[in-house]
């Protein structure tokens, strides 16, 4: 019992629990996973290919976010949990390496690695928190849902003709279960108030995953640029892609990331914010970065001529998806929809309408300029702003 009790993090009030080095080491696997996802989408940029990549992205995100929830409670610096993360790293490498052929001859390796990570981590957590009734009950419900989805993952791996629909069902089971409170007959449902979340740690973990995705985008852009002839058009395309990534970083990290940390730390129901804001909404942000990275590849490969439909969809679609994700993120923490993001989305829609007459370089530069404009607008609007300060100002105005 003493060993198990010692595996929990020691928390000091509302203090921010640090992200440990082993967590950062674990994240390296997902740099590889994000690279594999963007390359898979680039190689099959079609409606079906995009849908398959979306499913794999959901799977990768679900493995990572569930692990981040577990290390929110368990101390990764304790040897048993550290060993767990290292074992999960190995399984994660197999999962990531299987991504390009996940719907073909490596379906079994992808599905088995995924199920092992999800179910194995949950069983370990149940062992680690024995003696904590609320935690045990919550993760017993989670285990039931993960075992249900595992049936569909493994069945899809072995039945080629039914793989896609079976994996859709598997992900649907996992995706809707948190919103249902992981309801299980006789075991009941979990309430968000039952989740004793250390908000600062979880928000930082999600911010780090955004950095991972942005870093992968820059890595791919730099690697592609290094292989090309450095003429004026290619250099301009490279600068445009870099400015777009810079703007994405600015939009997320200038104020919203810190405001999200403040809100979840001070929230009376941090479990609700953790579920909605960080478990669901951040997936849109990461997906937007992945699609934008593919757009940068198209831009660097063919900066001149007419913008192809795939290039337009990737360049504009990735930016729109990123703005939508950030809009929902900021709305969830402030209760207000950022006008800068709405205006940016309108500008991107206009650019998409003009795309038949724009070369890829002009389309990419326009998209980067719009994102940079949104970032600058946010920087001006949000300098020194936090939701708590704005609420205090509103109360002062009403009293006056």
Write the SSE topology.
Elements: H1 2-6, H2 21-43, H3 47-73, H4 79-98, H5 107-128, H6 133-158, H7 163-176, H8 199-227, H9 232-253, H10 256-266, H11 270-301, H12 309-334, H13 339-354, H14 360-382, H15 387-399
Helix pairs in contact: 2-3, 2-4, 2-8, 2-11, 3-5, 3-7, 3-8, 3-11, 4-5, 5-6, 6-7, 8-9, 8-10, 8-11, 9-11, 9-14, 10-11, 10-12, 11-12, 12-13, 12-14, 13-14
**Radius of gyration over C-alpha positions, nearest whole angstrom:** 22 Å
Mean pLDDT, all residues:
88
Number of strands: 0
What general form does the structure show?
globular
Biggest beta-sheet profile: none
Order of helices and strands: HHHHHHHHHHHHHHH
Structural class: mainly alpha
Distance between the termini: 57 Å
What percent of residues are in strands?
A: under 5%
**Helix content percent band:** over 70%
**Helical run tally:** 15
* Spans of at least 5 consecutive residues with low confidence: 384-400
Structure description:
This protein is an all-alpha fold and 400 residues long. It is built from 15 helices and no strands. It has helices spanning 2-6, 21-43, 47-73, 79-98, 107-128, 133-158, 163-176, 199-227, 232-253, 256-266, 270-301, 309-334, 339-354, 360-382, 387-399. It is globular.
Summarize the model shown:
The chain has helices at residues 2-6, 21-43, 47-73, 79-98, 107-128, 133-158, 163-176, 199-227, 232-253, 256-266, 270-301, 309-334, 339-354, 360-382, 387-399.
């Amino acid at each position: 019992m003493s060993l198990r009790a010692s595996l929990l993090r020691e928390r000091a009030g509302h203090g921010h629990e640090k992200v440990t080095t082993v967590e950062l080491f674990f994240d390296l696997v997902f740099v590889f996973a994000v690279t594999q996802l963007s390359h898979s989408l680039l190689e099959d940029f079609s409606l079906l290919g995009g849908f398959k990549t979306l499913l794999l992205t959901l799977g990768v995100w679900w493995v990572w976010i569930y692990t981040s929830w577990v290390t929110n409670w368990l101390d990764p610096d304790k040897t048993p949990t550290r060993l767990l993360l290292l074992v999960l790293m190995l399984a994660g490498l197999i999962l990531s390496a299987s991504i390009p052929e996940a719907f073909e001859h490596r379906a079994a390796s992808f599905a088995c690695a995924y199920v092992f990570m999800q179910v194995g981590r949950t069983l370990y957590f149940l062992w680690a928190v024995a003696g904590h009734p609320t935690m045990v009950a919550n993760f017993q419900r989670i285990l039931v849902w993960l075992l249900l989805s595992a049936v569909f993952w493994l069945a899809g791996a072995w039945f080629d003709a039914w793989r896609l629909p079976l994996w859709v069902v598997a992900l649907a089971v996992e995706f809707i279960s948190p919103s249902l409170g992981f309801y299980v007959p006789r075991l009941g449902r979990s309430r968000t108030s039952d989740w004793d979340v250390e908000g600062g740690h979880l928000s930082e973990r999600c911010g780090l995953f955004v950095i991972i995705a942005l870093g992968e985008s820059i890595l791919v852009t730099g690697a592609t640029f290094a292989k090309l002839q450095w003429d004026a058009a290619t250099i301009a395309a490279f600068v445009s892609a870099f400015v777009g990534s810079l703007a994405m970083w600015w939009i997320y990290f200038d104020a919203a990331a810190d405001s999200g940390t403040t809100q979840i730390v001070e929230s009376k129901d941090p479990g609700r914010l953790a579920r909605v804001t960080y478990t669901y909404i951040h997936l849109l942000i990461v997906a937007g970065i992945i699609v934008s990275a593919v757009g940068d590849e198209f831009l660097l490969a063919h900066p001149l001529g007419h913008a192809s439909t795939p290039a337009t969809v990737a360049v504009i679609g990735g930016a729109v998806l990123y703005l939508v994700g950030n809009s929902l993120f900021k709305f969830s923490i402030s209760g207000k929809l950022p006008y800068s993001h709405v205006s940016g989305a309108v500008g991107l829609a206009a650019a998409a309408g003009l795309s038949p007459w724009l070369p890829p370089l002009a389309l990419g530069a326009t998209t980067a300029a719009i994102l940079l404009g949104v970032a600058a607008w946010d920087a001006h609007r949000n300098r020194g702003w936090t939701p708590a300060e704005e609420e205090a100002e509103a109360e002062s105005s009403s009293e006056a």
